[in-house]
Structure formats: C-alpha cells, structure tokens
Structure of DUF3021 domain-containing protein:
Amino acid sequence: MNQFKKYLMIDCYAFTAVVLANAIFQALNIASEVPMKYSLYIFLVSSVIAFLMFLTDQFIVSNGIVKGIVHILDVLVPVFLSNMLQSGFQLKLIETLIVIGFSLAIYGIVYLMMYLSYREKDAKLNESIQKMRAKKQKS
C-alpha cells in the first residue's frame, strides 16, 4: 500500500470513529449535539495526527515500543492542544482522563482497522501466489 493511501486511511478511519462515537454519545444523551464546524474541526485534528504519524514513520526506524509510544503522543498532543485552545487552556483532571481514554480507544480502533486491512490484502496476495504456483506446477 503506498504511503499516501495509508495515512489517508488512518485519517478517514479516525475521523469516522470519532464522529460515530460522538453520535452514539449524543443518542445516549451523554454529549450535546455539535455544529457542522465541529465536524470540520475533527477532520483537521485527525489530519494533523495522520501527518504526525507519517513524520514519525519517516524518522523513527524502530518498530517496537518506542514507535508505539511516539504514535500515541502523535495522537494526544494535537488532541490536547486543540482542546486547550477551545477551552481557554483550562483542562480539569476528569476531562483530561476522559480525553486520554477516548483518544486511546480511537487509536485502538484505527489500529485494528489498519491491521484488518493489511490482513485482507495479505490474504489476497497469498491467494495470488498460490494460484501462480499451481499454474507453474501444471506447466
């Protein structure tokens, strides 16, 4: 999968997950209805996150814990900055914990969606390879 498509998928998955979660919260009367500009704002934040993940993947070679921690920071920093700008730099402890939990849940959902996407592509590739091998053996 080319790099641009990968980060566009991350952006779209994140945006969709946040909007759907917000819709569920609204249906449960946990959150109030938000105006259209908020949806555009969510897309801007998810795009910044995808861009930061792109930069992380370009400059951090290790695929281990360090990269995972930096990816989580890629998510939390823009989310906190945007929340602080909206609330006038006043985050209470409970709000901070909710934002962290929500952000990590969305990160997990996006990670799962990307994993499933790669798994599906790998299965198709393996199937193609098996067909080519079977075709060669018949020849």
Remarks:
- The two ends are 32 Å apart (CA to CA).
- The chain has a mean pLDDT of 86.
- The chain has one domain: 3-138.
